[in-house]
Structure formats: C-alpha cells, structure tokens
Design brief:
The protein contains ten helices and six strands, in the order αβαββααβααββαααα. By secondary structure, the protein is α/β, with parallel strands linked by helices.
Length: 237
C-alpha cells in the first residue's frame, strides 16, 4: 500500500503541539523572510489590498507566525499587506508598526525541518479564530468609523468596500458576512454548514498542493487541483 502523503504532516503536527516552545515578539518587516521551501499557495492580490485597508484601520488582528530565524510559517497575505501598506501609506504603517510587527515565533529552523514547517502552517490555518456574528458586527462598526462603506454591489471609485474586506479578515464568505450584518443571530444552519465545510475542504486542497505525489493517480489528481480550488472559491464568493 502506498504511503499517505499526509502521514508526515500529521506526525509533525503532533510533535508541534507536544514538543515545540513558542513565544510572542516584534520584528521589523524586513526580518520576516520567505519560507525556505517557497509559498505553498499563490498570494491573492485582491486579498492583499483588502487586508492592507483593514490593517490601516484596525491594525494587525492576528500575529504572523515565524520560525526561530524569522522565516515565514503562516501569514503570507498579512506580511504582503503590511509591505503594501508601508509602500503606499507610510504614515499608517508607522502608526501601527513603529515598534515592529507582532509575530508568534516557534523554536525551530524551517530550513532544516521543512516538514515541520508545513505542519505548523497547516495547524495555524486550521485553528484560525471563528468569529461570532456579534464580533463581526463590532469589526464592521470599527471599519465604518474608519471610512468603509457598506453598499450593495460594486463600490464607487475611491470608496473602501466594507463587506469584502470584512470577509477577508474573518475568513468567511461574503454571503455569510452579509447575513451577520443583517443582525440575525439565527443563521440558516444548512447554508452556514455548507460554507463552513467548503472552507475546510479548500484549506485541505491547498495543503495537498504542497505535498509531493507518490503514485501516478495522485499526480493526475494534483494537476486538476487548481481548477477544483477555483470552482470552490467561486462558490464561496
């Protein structure tokens, strides 16, 4: 029987939870360097700009995850958004990050333990905070105060659109965010459950892209993953 491509990731994830120490600290943006093995998924330019706008208004809500040498483990879009903010609005960058970028640092070197780095990335993505409807509405109010507009359809030129930015921040579909903003705490369980499972599936498929296939059938499946991922992303819009 062929060895599961997830076997190493699972064992490393267990080690991550049991053995590794970690700490919180601040780093200059230049000290947060690329993953030694490269990005496991391409960055989305739209997400980067939406995150940059939210960080400008709210600051960095979730720290970036790095190894002992500052290699990026989780938070590629956040790092890119902070760099974009520094280039386009240095005053806002200095307001939030004059002392440094908040990071969560694990005590190991991703360069020598790439499998462990992948496991931590997977673990960090899976444990992403699940915001309640009340928390989403509170964030929405803070964004409105910062000049974001809650409008139907495409925002006017120069306007910052609230709903897409909020969806990127909390990791939920635009449809779910709109439902939260409507003020109803009794969500449709079927729709919300379907979106939730699609998001979980999307994360698993993205992780699968970063693992070397073993068999011919696995290689064939990996080639089809970009199209499958794109269709799921479209369903969540």
């Amino acid at each position: 029987m062929a060895k599961s491509p997830f076997a190493g990731v699972k064992s490393s994830a267990i080690r991550t939870q049991i053995e590794l120490g970690s700490s919180s600290s601040l780093l200059d943006i230049e000290q947060i360097t690329d993953r030694p093995s490269g990005d496991t998924r391409p960055l989305n330019e739209g997400h980067i700009k939406a995150l940059a706008e939210s960080i400008e208004a709210l600051g960095l809500i979730q720290p970036i995850t790095v190894d002992s040498k500052g290699h990026l483990l989780a938070g590629g879009h956040r790092r890119a958004a902070i760099k974009f903010l520094k280039e386009t609005n240095f005053e806002a960058f200095e307001k939030h990050f004059s002392a440094g970028i908040p990071v969560h640092r694990y005590d190991f070197d991703a360069d020598t333990e790439p499998e462990l780095a992948l496991a931590i990335e997977a673990t960090e993505n899976e444990k992403r905070r699940d915001y309640t409807a009340a928390e989403v509405r509170e964030l929405a109010q803070r964004l409105k105060t910062a000049g974001f507009h809650h409008t139907r359809g495409r925002a006017k030129a120069g306007q910052k659109s609230l709903t897409p930015t909020l969806a990127v921040i909390v990791g939920k579909s635009i449809r779910t965010v709109e439902r939260y903003l409507a003020g109803s705490s009794e969500l449709n369980p079927t729709d919300d459950g379907f979106d939730r499972q699609l998001n979980k599936t999307l994360n698993l498929l993205r992780k699968l892209q970063s693992i070397q296939p073993v068999t011919t059938k696995q290689s064939s499946l990996v080639k089809e993953l970009p199209q499958i991922i794109e269709r799921i992303e479209q369903a969540l819009e």
